[in-house]
Amino acid sequence: MSTSQATPATAAANGNPPVAPAKPTQLSKDGPSSNVGTFGVKSGLAQMLKGGVIMDVTNAEQARIAEEAGACAVMALERVPADIRAQGGVARMSDPKMIKEIVEAVTIPVMAKVRIGHFVEAQILQAIGVDYIDESEVLTPADEQHHINKHTFKVPFVCGAKNLGEALRRISEGAAFIRTKGEAGTGNVVEAVRHQRAVMSDIRRATAMNDEELYAFAKDLQAPFHLLKEVARLKRLPVVSFAAGGLATPADAALMMQLGCDGVFVGSGIFTSGDPAKRARAIVQAVTHYNNPKILAEISEDLGPAMVGLTIEPDMKGGLLAGRGS
Amino acid sequence: MATKDDVTIGILAMQGAFAEHQVILQKLSIKRKVVTTLVRTMDDLERCDALIIPGGESTTIALLARLAGLLEPLRAFVRKKPVWGTCAGAILLSSSVEGAKKGGQELLGGISVTTARNGWGSQVESFEAALNVDGLRDSLKPFTGVFIRAPVILSISPTALEPPVQVIARLSTELLPKNQTLIPADEDNTDPRDTRCVVALRQGHHLLTTFHPELTRDDRFHEYFVRECVLPSLI
């Protein structure tokens, strides 16, 4: 492998043995050393979540149901996106007490959301020991111009993206994990599909380009050239990428996997459905067996009512969330 | 298509970092041709001469294995053929585990150790450390151990009838977890024989690492598994 380790985001996922450690580890003369919070361990945890389902939960009991159903992580938040949408008002970081109760209740990683640009909410979540932070458009943005400088944190961040340029901007700010934005709280997968197809299409275009074309394409995308070049080499994003925003059924999850996602987030889709435990387990199985329609048919049977879906239109209740932060 | 002389190594592909193992195995240059297969069904498992259980979430992997009807076949496989567990895989190969989810956790067993989940605590305690490993190619060159919410080995206790356990890599005592209520702190963290320092070991044809060789660009652990565990089992 001839490439340098210049960028931490050369840590990869599928298809390439990943992780140029952010700092080289060596046995120093002064004794043993270790590096905490390197980009390698941040993106590495996302790699451990691949092929899995991350579920929104609002209390310890739901977190236990999610763990029993096979969730590979839970997202702790006070209101699921469907309720944020219905109730309106400013949506903020959840109460640390509630997050800590969820951390206590399960053995799997616990994530929590902060408002876009709200680095103090992120400092608080790092202090209470969450495993991952989602700098999320589902909460009301705290800064309309800047995202958090995520390099300065030991805790890793996941961020949403609608297209390749946005994904690479988030990675250059230090995100170790990318997800589609979709349109949260709608139970409608159409926007997640749009975003994933946009990312994959731009990756395929970049793959066929020479350096001159990549410089021009980087300018169009408003993305750093070195990250775009890495995308072209790897033929994928240089970090793990999940689907999120509007997934409600096992078929939705398998669709996003077949479109090239490494795993899925399910927000409102589980605990606003008729039988959360059964639906959660079915979605977990769908992500493992996404390419096997026979198994998908079996696990899709008799799941009870799915969450009520919404048609996505500009004046819908709660508005369009995906446009927040770009 | 695999021929008679090829070695087929499966990677359990329920959930987690299975693709990373596959990429490294496919690039290995050794005298026997290695064929890799992702294992999701009984048919997949039956083709394998050896198996890797990757990192991921051990509760998720165990549940999916049970739902796929693979739990008992995997236990039978572990009794006969070489298996390597990394991180979550190491937990699943343990004979018992502490710090498991409420209601306990299903294991495969196969290696006579007791492990504790999330031994160092949450993700902010995850770290990289240089390791000296016995028996690796270029063994003077340290191997970068990537420890992500890693388990800790609490005890190693093979019975007289089981193969002996051979420790091949240890962490310095100074890197042991601090302030972890789960793990007894009755010692002063200076005894180098402390099993909590052990991060890689072998028992018979099995290999266990609490860290992630598949997250590096260094293929020496994969080469070691094939050379020391898999090939000798085929004779």
Annotation keywords:
heterodimer, A: 326 residues, alpha/beta, TIM Barrel, eight-stranded parallel beta sheet, 9 strands, 39% helix, globular, disordered N terminus, B: 235 residues, Rossmann fold, seven-stranded mixed beta sheet, three-stranded mixed beta sheet, 6 helices, 12 strands, 23% helix, pyridoxal phosphate (chain A), pyridoxal 5'-phosphate synthase (glutamine hydrolyzing) (chain A), PdxS/SNZ_N (chain A), lyase (chain A), schiff base (chain A)
Give a quick rundown of the structure:
The complex is a heterodimer of chains A (326) and B (235). Chain A has 326 residues and is an alpha/beta fold.
SSE blueprint:
The complex is a heterodimer of chains A (326) and B (235).
Chain A: E1 34-36, H1 39-49, E2 53-57, H2 60-68, E3 73-76, H3 81-87, H4 96-105, E4 110-115, H5 119-128, E5 132-136, E6 157-161, H6 164-172, E7 177-180, H7 190-207, H8 211-221, H9 225-234, E8 240-242, H10 250-258, E9 264-266, H11 268-271, H12 276-288, H13 293-299
Parallel strand pairs in A: 2-3, 2-9, 3-4, 4-5, 5-6, 6-7, 7-8
Chain B: E1 7-12, H1 18-27, E2 34-39, H2 42-46, E3 50-53, H3 58-67, H4 71-80, E4 83-86, H5 88-93, E5 94-98, E6 111-116, E7 127-131, E8 143-147, E9 152-156, E10 165-170, E11 198-203, E12 206-209, H6 220-233
Parallel strand pairs in B: 1-2, 1-3, 3-4, 4-12, 5-6
Antiparallel strand pairs in B: 6-9, 7-8, 10-11, 11-12
Protein name (chain B): glutaminase
Active site (chain B): 87, 212, 214
GO molecular function (chain B): glutaminase activity; lyase activity; transferase activity
Structural summary, described in words:
Chain B: It catalyses: L-glutamine + H2O = L-glutamate + NH4(+). Chain B: Keywords: Glutamine amidotransferase, Hydrolase, Lyase, Transferase. Chain B: This is glutaminase. Chain B: The active site is at 87 (nucleophile), 212 (charge relay system), 214 (charge relay system). Chain B: Belongs to the glutaminase PdxT/SNO family. The complex is a heterodimer of chains A (326) and B (235). By secondary structure, chain A is α/β, with parallel strands linked by helices. Chain A has a single domain (39-300), classed as Aldolase class I (TIM Barrel, Alpha-Beta Barrel). Chain A has helices at 39-49, 60-68, 81-87, 96-105, 119-128, 164-172, 190-207, 211-221, 225-234, 250-258, 268-271, 276-288, 293-299; strands at residues 34-36, 53-57, 73-76, 110-115, 132-136, 157-161, 177-180, 240-242, 264-266. Chain A has an eight-stranded parallel beta sheet with strand order 8-7-6-5-4-3-2-9, sandwiched between helices. In chain A, helix 10 (250-258) packs parallel to helix 12. The longest helix of chain A is centred in the middle third of the chain and has 18 residues, at 190-207. Chain B has one domain: 3-Layer(aba) Sandwich (Rossmann fold). Chain B has helices at 18-27, 42-46, 58-67, 71-80, 88-93, 220-233, and strands spanning 7-12, 34-39, 50-53, 83-86, 94-98, 111-116, 127-131, 143-147, 152-156, 165-170, 198-203, 206-209. In chain B, strands 2-1-3-4-12-11-10 form a seven-stranded mixed beta sheet. In chain B, a hairpin with a 2-residue loop joins strand 11 and strand 12. Chain B is globular. At the A-B interface, strand 1, helix 1, helix 2 and helix 12 of A face helix 1, helix 3, strand 7 and strand 8 of B.
